[in-house]
Amino acid sequence: MEDKNVSIRHFYLDWIKVLAMMIVFLYHCSMFFNSFDWHIKNNIINHTYVEFFSLLVGNWIMPIFFVLSGMSTYYALKRRDSTSFIKERLLRLGIPLLLGIFLLSPPQVYIERITNLQFNGSFMQFYPHYFDGLYLEIGGNGNFAFFGHHLWYLLMLLLFSGITLPFFLKIRQDAGRKEFSILHYLLIPIPLSIAALTVNSIVNLGSWGIIFYLLLYISGFYFFARESLRQFVRKTGLFAGGFSILFTAIYLNWVIFYGFPLKTGVSWAIFMIVRVLLVWNTLFFMLFLGDKYLDFTNRTLKYASEASMPFYILHQPIIIVIGYFIYSIDWPIPLKIIVLVSLSFALIMCIYHFMIRRVNYLRLLFGLKEVKEVNIGETTKTIKL
């Protein structure tokens, strides 16, 4: 019965992961057009609907991934010992991260440098300079993106997996059986708020600090993987959705009319707590919607779920490369959005469908399991190793 529950949970969790990956893709497309710092910007900035979309999803999209990763870790440690778990993490996270650092990040840094007049020359002339200093911020002087640019998520997961493994091994038997209650729902945002108010500037990535993401990862393992949380979400998901809309409205109005509070103070503290409550309630609302409407599997999910890792690895460098060829053209922004989104998506999926999924060493580079064809009687079956 337990294995059945786990598989059922994975259906809607996989749908959420796939849909969240598409939102990340659209979010990074929007970064090309909005006023926030990014590696390459369009010649005309949109301060209305594009920026509104960026603000709408930017707070909660990466927290969802860390909660889902914590839940995936819980299920993985039910099937694997610590050695096989670490080996799997190194293969499926470490190898794609190295690919990103040494092959996919250099073109992104190069395009950033030439469009900001920080370098003049070809990509081959630039590549030796890629190792000049550490890349620490957009527009900085260092070039070596040791975190793989957008693949910082993989680096964080590797670090979190190693740091938390001894703790997770001790509590994995009890974590899924304990009841999730309204008290947990009310109290867990407190340490998240403390992290946001005190250490959010420590390795700030994707608008949140590393400690905040670590707490969400642990929460995904210890709280969100419980079957009782699923029952709790079914009862309270609509209330969480209402609070999510409320705090989103407060946040958007605050930023649009008053801007981001820059100085530490009472208003800044209230602003950060609003953001935390926005994230927390959005997580529950997403789980509620997924459990209610996406608790099924089909061929589309199976295909998209496997494609999500290569898609994530490829999406930002391809967006930036295509953006480079259109950023100075005087087209209307809606037309550029259509071109950037459609061409980037088509190119990513073509690379995945016709190359990565069919070649085992490419599958390994992009975090997928190898496949092998075996003969069973008169039929040939493809299995993942």
N- and C-termini, Cα separation: 26 Å
State Rg. 21 Å
Outline the biggest β-sheet.
Answer: 2 strands, antiparallel
Question: Helix coverage percent of residues?
Answer: 55-70%
Number of beta-strand segments: 2
Low-confidence stretches: 1-8
**Spatial ordering of strands, largest sheet:** 1-2
How many domains, as an integer?
A: 1
Structural class: mainly alpha
Helix count, DSSP H or I runs of 4 or more residues: 14
Percentage of residues in strands: under 5%
**Looking at the structure, what is the overall shape?**
globular
| SSE pattern, N- to C-terminal | HHHHHHHHHHHHHHEE
Mean model confidence by pLDDT: 92
Quick summary:
The chain has 14 helices and two strands. It is mainly alpha-helical.
List keywords for this structure.
disordered N terminus, 2 strands, 385 residues, globular, two-stranded antiparallel sheet, mainly alpha, 14 helices
Plain-language structure description:
- The protein has 14 helices and two strands.
- It is mainly α and 385 residues long.
- It has one domain.
- The longest helix is centred in the first third of the chain and has 34 residues, at 82-115.
Topology:
Elements: H1 2-31, H2 49-58, H3 61-79, H4 82-115, H5 123-126, H6 152-175, H7 182-187, H8 189-198, H9 210-224, H10 227-258, H11 266-293, H12 299-326, H13 333-354, H14 360-365, E1 371-376, E2 379-384
Antiparallel strand pairs: 1-2
Helix pairs in contact: 1-2, 1-3, 1-11, 1-12, 3-6, 3-9, 4-6, 4-12, 6-9, 8-9, 8-11, 10-11, 12-13
